[in-house]
Amino acid sequence: MAEVVGLRLPLSANLERFSLLLWQSSVPHRIAEERGMQVVWVASEHHAEQVKALYARLQAGDPELVVAAVEPREVPPQTVWYKRFFSVPVVAILLVLSLLGALLPVLDRNYQYLPYLSFYQLYIVDGTLRGDWPVGQLWRVITPAFLHFGVMHIVFNSLWLWELGGMIERRQGAVRVFGIFVLVAAGSNIAQAMSSVSLFGGMSGVIYGLLGYIVIWNKLRPSQAFPLAKGVAVVMVVWLLLCIAGFTELLGVGSVANTAHVSGLVLGLVLGAAAALLDRKPL
Q1: What is the pTM of this model?
Q2: For the chain, which terminus, N or C, has the lower number of CB atoms within 10 Å?
Q3: Higher pLDDT pick, 222 / 162
Q4: Does the domain formed by 87-278 have CATH 2.170.270.10?
């Protein structure tokens, strides 16, 4: 479920009693500091209207609300980890599939099953790696995103998928983040496959797509900006440039699917711009 902004207030505003009032009024919410403001996030437009109305009454000094707000309440229990994990079901499923995709190269030593998930149907002719374009096997344009080779590969991709993908799913819903995943995964995998015949995989193209989506959305919709930490985009773009320059090969890590990364970033920027311009929610 996508979250909705209920209120934006300056950092100087004390929202402790107001938050207490919202819980007593059965309005689930969370308060976050974003871009120098306190933002009250709720689950629906109906709750957002309740938040605005209750805050206006509290500011007006409604005696009933003031008395209610200072009454003791039972502190809501902290959300257990698995509930938080499945609060973003699409991202959770992608993480599980990525973990399975990381285990497959380790368990499938004879490469009996892994070739079914690669983009190309690979084979060797006269010592040269060749591959057939996946005609009639559309799953192959998506499944390379789940394949991971090495611990660091899956760890870093999982962390960024949880952070960036979860950010989008919590704000804009499961359908939006799933659509971004499918389009960016397919586009970046096709672009990488056109650049060379090889066994490639990973969620990195999607990660850069999510980054591009968030960055351009924040530029075009600053009032509804995602809470992307300062410097994250710069660091990720610098890393992308280092990979293109062959830095990972100098480190002995191996080659990187740079075409997938760059195309994923471009697709994310395009999708983010389209979403920001076409979304019906007011600026």
Answers
A1: 0.74
A2: C
A3: 162
A4: no
